[in-house]
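Data availability (excerpt). All sequences and predicted token strings are deposited with the supplementary files. A representative entry, Coiled-coil domain-containing protein 112 Mutated in bladder cancer protein 1, is shown inline so that the format can be inspected without opening the archive.
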Amino acid sequence: MNVCILFSLNEFEQGEGDCSSVQQPYRSSPVSSNVVDHRLARQKAAQFLREAEKNRRQIEKLEKERTLFALCKKNGWRDVSGELEDYEKGLGEERNGDKTNLQKQLVKIHSGVRKFQRQLTDVKPTPELIDRLKEIMSEVEISITTLKEKQRSCFEELLKEERTCRQEITAYEKKIENWTLVTETKESTAPKIWTKHSGQPVYRKEAKLYLPGKTLEEIEQHENWHQELIFLQGRKKEAIQRWKASKNRERQVRIHKQEEVVERREKEAKSKAQQQRTEEERREAAQRLREWREERRRKEQQEEEQRLAEEIQKRRQAKEERRRQLDVKLSIEEQLRQKREEEQELERKRQEEIQREMDERRREAAKGIKHFNERDLHRVETKLQEKQLREKEEEERQTRIAAKLKEKGDGHIGRDPVRLTRPTKGWEERMKHIGPSGSGPVLQTFHRSDRLFFLTFVWVKILNLRLTKIFSHFIAELFPLGDKAYDEQQ
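Structure token line:
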């Protein structure tokens, strides 16, 4: 029964784990069970596992005691071993039946848990689903509770049987111990009484008092057996002494012969050893001479090899030193070359940057000059347009005034529109007498419109000259190399 329970222990743990894993999502639902009940169930399961472990250890202990059957058969206790084998066979059949039933129950629980898990996969919570899950959970819980109750009842029965068996074994052990004490008392009391009376028949009555369960014939038989035992023990001691004496004589003879053989062999060995020692000394002397010569030759050879090795090492070191110096030189040259290249590259980049900045500044200056020129030209054009507009307005005003005056006065007065710009006769006469080397500056009188145009033109020229000088000075400061590169670029 215990073997069946321990065999299905892993399956029961798996079933408990499945139930706990299923109850986890079920607790999150509105119809989840109480947490306290779940903890109590887990505690009961832990208690169940501890009891199962305890029973497993007891089974292992009983399995170790099964060697008693072999001991019983060896000692000839056929009836006891047969009864034990029959009892064990019956227990094995009972365990197999319990194992089968337990496996069926575990399979049922496992199938219920799997069914519950399948119901929880990819479904929407509905009242029908919740009712179905409740039914499945109740079935699984009922199955687990029933299994636990059955196992608990089985454990209780087994514990009762174990206690009963332990009490019976204790009683039998005490009984056997009492038997042993009685036997020891009998075995020790009879020889003491026989020794006390020096083997006289009177001791039988006193022995009868100490051994009430024995008759006089049994005591007499025991006396004969004891006398025969003493006689046989005496003969045994005499035979052992004779055997020891013969063994000692044989050992002495063997030792004497061995000593003679050893002495003779020692003499022969000494003579041979002396000869061998003389021969060995001669060989050793010759060997030492050969070794000395060989050692001297080897030393000379080693010295020559060492000298050659040192010379080769020096040459190799010199070669390595030259190669290292050459590598260092090449490395330094390479570093210098790389440094020069880097410096040249940096210088080139710097020159390019300077040239790019200069080009950018030239372009900006050209753009500025162009912008100022356009601005000045625009201003001049604007002023010219304003001047023309004012002249046009003035002409229109003069025309209106003339029209008004004509309306008021004589309408036949003629007017020359170019009289304002035509030179007078005095001016023409004065211009005729001016030669190539005039006697002095000539003063000219301009009309109002001519003076305005002349002043505007002079002001524009002066402004252009001043702006040109300012930008030329600015460009000279920005580009000290001159405008040659800029002109070439343009």
